[in-house]
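Chain X:
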Amino acid sequence: MARKLILDCDTGTDDAVAIMLAALHPELDLVAVTTVNGNVEVQYCTDNTLRVLDHIGRSEVPVHEGLRRPLVRPDFPVPRNAAVNPNSNIHGRELPLPPATSRKQGQGAVEFLVETYRSTTEEIALVPVGPLSNIAAAIAIEPRMVDAVPEVVIMGGGNVKGNATPSAEFNIWADPEAAAAVLAAGFRRITLVPLDATHQALVSREQCRALAALGTPAGEAAAALIDRRITGYDATQPMAVRESAPVHDALCVAYLVQREVLDVHRLHVDVETAGALTVGRTVIDAYFRGGKEPNCDVALGADAAVFGDFLLRTLAR
């Protein structure tokens, strides 16, 4: 039986690839996509999501639009470091796909999450790959939701790497209070997929050509989107491996099907919400110095070959 999941995303280029994988893999059943303010303002995330699903022939998957700002901070969607934020070069507001003909659902993302997990008799994994605003709001409304979710796989954070600031990864930095609340909520299983792992599963231009050669709508779209990511990384990140780029969010979907794609360790993770220089940093206690019980599985490594093969096999459909 296919594994059910809800994907919560701020749809830019890597989210789009994640959506395609979740919607097309035969072992996954994409129940819905919820959107959140992040890479771009939430209305563009929603439109991009609809474009992706229409393009690959999965327009029946419902899309619920979520929060337009973080839970506490008033300075979004114009981040304090917007002038140097590489996301503007890598994502853009509108994905280069045909305009959507499908429409978002009338019910908002937070309400959908609360009602779905209140009523479900099935196990539905939750995969947030953007800021955690929707998830934190939902568990604040319905704390029992943490017992209904069998597994949460989060793209976010970094042990050594940051990308929004020198110390913080974008998804966590964009709503650090939400991230802190989700990590402390008591979900029975959380996997955190930080930059340390995603930057070990790079996709190259050569692999993009192989994706395009599949001749499928998903393969061709993924090739174009990842190629755009590579161009953006090459232009803005001098320390990046040239002619390749991470596809962060897609790695989380791959992990649901192929656990061996990630090297995970049971650790305690906190989120810094106060420090001016370190706000949004995930404090990963990799050496057990904090005296706190581990609260999530943290991916500190990834297998690029497994991930690349997963992309090709799934997007051939």
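Chain Y:
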Amino acid sequence: MNKSLILIASIALSVAFSGLCRAQSDAPYTEGPVWTITMVKAKAGMGDEYLKGLAKTFKGAMDEAKKQDLIMDYKILLGPPATPQDFDILLMVESKNMAALDNAREKFDPIARKIEGTPDQQRATQTKRLEIREIMGSKLMREITLK
């Protein structure tokens, strides 16, 4: 009797487990990579100056991060603001998944030192940028594909 009960329980658990394994999400999409998006508003007449600075720092850092397989890709989008308070530049960095963002400082600080110099030099660059742009906000968003 004891062996029969164990056998029935084992079969029931196997059937329940296999049903769970076959279950799929009801979400109308599949999850893709993660994007870190920074919205920037260049001050009047300073857009080109800001982009020149990005060509040295942001582009250099992202190219190195891509080479080290820390990011998948990056993009910069430029367009007119919808309102006077709106951003006109988007900085977008694509990561494989959320886990790729773990321990980001350990991964990216050496790249920043290589591209931009010491922490003091990095702060000086950031302080100078305050004169030509404003960070409007930042978002972390997941790319999805509709089913």
